[in-house]
Write a structure and sequence with these properties.
- It contains seven helices and four strands.
- With 260 residues, the chain is an alpha/beta fold.
- The chain has a single domain, classed as Creatininase (Rossmann fold), CATH 3.40.50.10310.
- It has a four-stranded parallel β-sheet, sandwiched between helices.
- The longest helix has 22 residues.
- The protein is globular.
- The two termini are 23 Å apart.
- The relative contact order is 0.17.
- The protein binds zinc ion and manganese (II) ion (MN).
Length: 260
Amino acid sequence: MVESVFMAELSWPEWEARIKAGAVIFLPLGATEQHGPHLPLNVDVILPTAIAEAVARGLGGLVAPTLQYGYKSMPRSGGGQSFPGTASLDAATFSHTIRDVIRDMGMHGARRFVLINGHFENAWPSVEGLDLALRDLRAEGIRDVTAMRLEYWDFVKAGTLARIFPDGFPGTELEHASLVETSLMLRIRPDLVDLARIPQEGRASFPPYDIHPPPPGYLRESGVLADARGSSREIGEWLFNDHVEMITAAVRREFPGMRP
Ligand code: ZN
Ligand code: MN
């Protein structure tokens, strides 16, 4: 019998047995998107997958294969689509991918899901995908599927943010490829971080509206929106521990009866 927290490493009878025993399915939602010159394209895949893995291990859950592509990168939150290497999905494609995999797992008996989003722009299209999946399942007479959907970065203690940003937290949107993501990568995959290539420029500023297509000079050339200087493994450790601890507590609250 294979013991793995990653569902795709199980055989189908093992998957079925784990689901029958009440295992929750964690589905990380990623993206393939530029993250500045110092980070790889798969930051938004690595981070939610690592968090889902830690939470699922603690709760006896299973991590479904991470969605490797996300909804389109936006100039004010991800740098935008013009960077080489960024490869995204149309919203309908992204939503329908979520719909299809949740529906299929639901048809096969899975009843509890946690969608852990790792890419800002995935938020609303993932709500749509989940809604469509539950609608499809209801049409099949399956009404007892429950899903949580969350952004991992919302699960952080005020005290941790105050320690990291003594002058005030600039907000999640501008954190793209900046202190938070760089520090988490130093905690989880330091081999993929090139500290020497962190841009030496401050926080970007945007007007409170978008322009399509982005005019010349609107985009940050480096692709980094805030400031990654000062990133450290220690900061990444604080954030990672908050995310895992607080998401675990939330899942326990919503899905009682999980192993202690
Ligand atoms: Zn990111
Ligand atoms: Mn992103």
